[in-house]
Amino acid sequence: MLAPMEIPVETLRRLARLGGFAWTDAELEAIRPGVQRLLETLERLETLPLDGVEPTTQYRLL
Amino acid sequence: MSDLVWLSMAELGHMISTKEISPLEVVRAHLDRIAALDGGLRAFITVCADGALQAARAAETDLMAGKVAGPLHGVPWAPKDLYATKGIRTTGGSKILAESIPSEDATVVSRLSRAGAVVLGKLNMHEFAYGPEGLNAHYGDARNPWDRNAHRIAGGSSSGSGVAVAAGLAPGSLGSDTGGSIRIPASLCGITGLKPTYGRVSRAGVLPLSWSMDHVGPMTRTARDCALILGAIAGYDPADPTTSVLPVPDYAAALGGEVRGLRVGLLRAHFTDVAAPEVRAAIEAAARRLELAGAVVDEVNLTQVIHVAAASSAIVASEAVAYHAGWMRARAQDYQPDVRERLRIGAFVSGAHYVRAQQARALVRREVDDALAKRDVLLAPATPIAAPAVGERDTTLGDGPSDVRSALIRLTRPFNFSGHPCCAAPCGFTAGGLPIGLQVVGRPFDEATVLRVVDAYQRLTDWHTRRPEPA
């Protein structure tokens, strides 16, 4: 697992635009710590033994 | 103030059907209490006094003609304001939908109307159900009725439901639960709240937060009342493709039994052991009380739940952004600040993260299923802390410091992730007089056993009969 890097606002701006969001630098700067924390949390998913595990959203319904 | 407001839905329904009291009398008593107290409690976003009185008169006319729709005939209730109600605004606790008036009822609302229940109004909530504190910048913060002096959170997102039921403004409600939004306010307000199995109850006509994590269910003062409501709303709905076609049992008829011989697993690591000392002591006492009544109690550890925070964050954030994207572009300034920030952060979750999180779901579900293969139910705290004051950001749990928001959802969210049914109910009070809630978890589609355990516990104890004295 790679050590989490600090995300520049420039990267956030590009990613946000890909998602269709035209947020200002000030708006992106405000959420940057939260995005950083979220991505660090999501890194943990990379360590799970999920090979061969099907994604699940609900019980098999009769 | 009328004592009618403290009767359970089961008692009200029985007394109405035997003509000891009239639906009109019952609805008026609740409307009077709402008028007297809701200015301070802020449980309601919209009060439907005229509609409620009209429906109560119709219920009375039917009753006099010998037509009783069922055990909820003429009994008042109030939904969280994210259930579509025909002709009544449905705001989702937002400014964005402040003037939105649905043309149809949500499936569960129409099922309760068909069962004869009467809508008193629509209840406050965290905006768009996206927050466990239950705070609302647009309609005012619901106030926990258990502290007359400090403004404490009611818990969310179904905060108005917790407050209205605890304070006697409504005997029952429907909340929604994506990470604990039924069980957290039930725990913090001292009431009983059931999150059914994913697929047991239709979500059609309910504003979504996260399609694969959202559950809808009853919030009342007793397990019996939860059983009555669940019996009326559960079952397949062609308008919600995730609903199960499994038959709906008579949940109320399954109550009243003993717990002798029932196998109860007390969840230790990551659950009871991380709770604040008073909460931990209350849960251990509840386990001992069930054991004294003949249940076989052992201890169990779920290890895979350490992945729940990351995986469920990926799922909820992604699904919430998918639903809100249009408004996030066009009306961002109309969200309350914490919800806007949460939505924006969620836009950075990748598709790969989302799918990986849904894979992790299988691991956690399998572990909970395995624990329940040897036991009938699992027992844990619903929340690791009692109601914090509004503005309190940090707390300390058994395994160290935590922010309040993470602490509130920590013990409930695993079962949104896994989909298992759970019921929260009061099991004690802190030295400061705040309710403590336990959580009973059952096998998929076995709400009957979950409710049976909580009902038995409520017949052994009187925590659920304590009443707050709101200012």
Mind explaining what this structure looks like?
The complex is a heterodimer of chains A (62) and B (471). Chain A is built from 2 helices and no strands. Chain A is mostly helical and 62 residues long. Chain A has a domain at 9-45. Chain A is elongated, with a radius of gyration of 16 Å. The mean pLDDT of chain A is 87. By secondary structure, chain B is an alpha/beta fold. Chain B is 38% helix and 14% strand. In chain B, the strands form 3 sheets. A 10-stranded mixed β-sheet of chain B has the order 3-2-5-7-6-13-14-10-8-9, sandwiched between helices. Chain B has a two-stranded antiparallel sheet with strand order 1-4. In chain B, helix 2 packs antiparallel against helix 3, helix 7 runs antiparallel to helix 14 (447-460) and helix 9 packs across helix 11 (351-373). The two termini of chain B are 14 Å apart. The mean pLDDT of chain B is 97. The interface between A and B is large, with 32 and 42 residues.
Provide tags for this entry.
heterodimer, A: 62 residues, mainly alpha, 2 helices, 0% strand, elongated, B: 471 residues, alpha/beta, ten-stranded mixed beta sheet, two-stranded antiparallel ribbon, 14 helices, 38% helix, globular
**Tell me, what's the shape of chain A?**
elongated
**Termini separation of chain B (Å)?**
14 Å
Q: Portion of residues in helices of chain B?
A: 25-40%
Largest sheet of chain B: 10 strands, mixed
Taken in chain order, the helices and strands of chain B follow as: HHEHEHEEHEHEEHEHEHHHEEEHHEEH
- What spatial form of chain B do the alpha-carbon principal axes imply? globular
- The number of helical elements of chain A comes to 2
Structural class by SSE content of chain B: alpha/beta
- Rg over C-alpha atoms of chain A, rounded to the nearest angstrom: 16 Å
Mean of pLDDT of chain A: 87
**Average pLDDT for all residues of chain B:** 97
The largest interface is:
A-B, 32 and 42 residues
Note the beta-strand portion of chain B: 5-15%
Distance between the termini of chain A: 41 Å
Poorly predicted runs of 5 or more residues of chain B: none
Q: Spell the H/E element sequence of chain A.
A: HH
